[in-house]
Amino acid sequence: MFKNITIDEKNKDILIKAISKDRINHCYIFVGPTGTNKRESAIEFIKAILCTEEEKPCNKCISCVKINNNNHPDFIDILPTENSIKISQLREMQRKMNIKPYESNYKVFLINNSETMGIPAQNSLLKSLEEPNSRVVMILISKSSQSLLPTILSRGQILHFNPLGRIKFEEEVSNYNLNTKGIEDLYNLSQGCIAKAKYILDNPEEILKFDKFRDYIYNIIKRDYNKVFQFSKWIKDNSIPNEDVLNNMLIIFKNILYARIQVDINEGKEVSDYLTYESIHDIIQDIIDLQSSLKYNINFQLQIERLLLKIQEEK
Predict the structure, then answer these.
(1) Residue 3 is assigned to a structural domain of this protein
(2) What is the 3-state secondary structure (H, E, C) of 12-53?
(3) pTM of the model
(4) Residues of the chain falling short of pLDDT 50
(5) Residue 2 within any structural domain of the chain
(6) How far is the C-alpha of 80 from the C-alpha of 204, rounded, in Å?
(7) Please, are residues 22 and 151 in contact by the beta-carbon 8 Å criterion?
(8) Tell me: the pLDDT tens digits for 189-215?
(9) To 10 degrees, the CA torsion angle through 296, 302, 303, 305?
(10) Highest taxon of the source (predicted)?
């Protein structure tokens, strides 16, 4: 298992032992930022649960092939509709839980982007967790445990998927022949999330887009008022997802914070004197709060323009 997936050794051991000892919990919660191979690891684990061969997953048996083709009747892949997991989807899941597996010993439900569930949806899910079916396995994928109810967290086995440290990250991208500056830029942009880093390497225009993004933010910090609305139009014209806008802003302001408190850091140094430590901290908190509100139907363009204007006013 996990031969071609970068995954934390502790998580790997937990999941491999669950398969080898046939001690599979009724609920797992995979938590971590985008690009840490949560979904890839979940699919690999699900294939192993449903695989019919000794070496699991074999990727050759009919079960593995069906999962790879996304047509296994005992694997239900639940994705957000209109940016969130709806209570109607969970009620349909509960209905399917009462039906015996068609081809396997288990029926496995994968709930993607679990952080997008509202409180009513989470309460609906809780009913399934409180009365687990021995033939059912649920895997929740979430960017943050804070967005899930404590009662849900207490009923699942939580596995944390963390970004890679610098040394491990360099090992993973060593085949790409990057120079020191290239590795530094890639690590900074991906924040150590290896799946995101490999996507960037396959799409080098993403680095140029981030450079342009950062230039806009730096100019806004330097009190160029016109850049606020130019930037808002630019992210809309380039169809940059709301989540990516906030992730990039978080990366930029964290680097500015590091530059503000450490004299030997170059990234962010150019604008670090424009903001106090307290104001940078407040901006980062505002970005995090806006990230949490994405699952609601907000006017994102208006909210981001308000945040940018606030950044200009900070001293």
Answers:
(1) no
(2) HHHHHHHHHCCCCCCEEEEECCCCCCHHHHHHHHHHHHHCCC
(3) 0.79
(4) none
(5) no
(6) 28
(7) no
(8) 888 898 889 888 988 888 888 889 999
(9) 160
(10) Bacteria
Q: In what order do the strands lie in the sheet with 27-31?
A: 75-78, 107-111, 136-142, 27-31, 157-160
Give the SS3 label for residue 94: helix
Question: What is the C-alpha to C-alpha distance for residues 154 and 126, in angstroms, rounded to an integer?
Answer: 10
pLDDT at 30: 97
Q: What percent of the chain has pLDDT over 90?
A: 44
Question: Could you tell me if 80 and 118 lie in one domain?
Answer: yes
CB contact burial 147-183 (16+ within 10 A = b; e otherwise): bbeeebbebbeebebebbeeeebeeebeeeebeeeeb
Expressed as residue numbers, the domain containing 171 is 164-203
Strands 157-160 and 27-31: parallel
Same domain membership, residue 83 and residue 185? no
Left, alpha or beta for 84 (phi > 0: left; psi -120 to 50: alpha)? beta
Looking at 152, 178, 203, the residue that finishes a domain is 203
Can you give the CATH number for the domain in which 30 is found? 3.40.50.300
Distance CA 118, CA 175 (A): 42
Answer yes or no: do 269 and 185 share one domain. Answer: no
One domain, residues 184 and 227: no
Q: What local confidence, expressed as pLDDT, does residue 263 receive?
A: 61
Dihedral sign (CA 110, 112, 114, 119): negative
Find tokens 């929740």 and name the residue: 140
Nearest to 38 by CA among 111, 137, 121, 127: 111
Please give the tally of structural domains in the chain. 3
61/181 same-domain check = no
205 burial (CB, 10 Å; 0-12 / 13-18 / 19+) is: exposed
List the structure tokens of 309.
């204007």
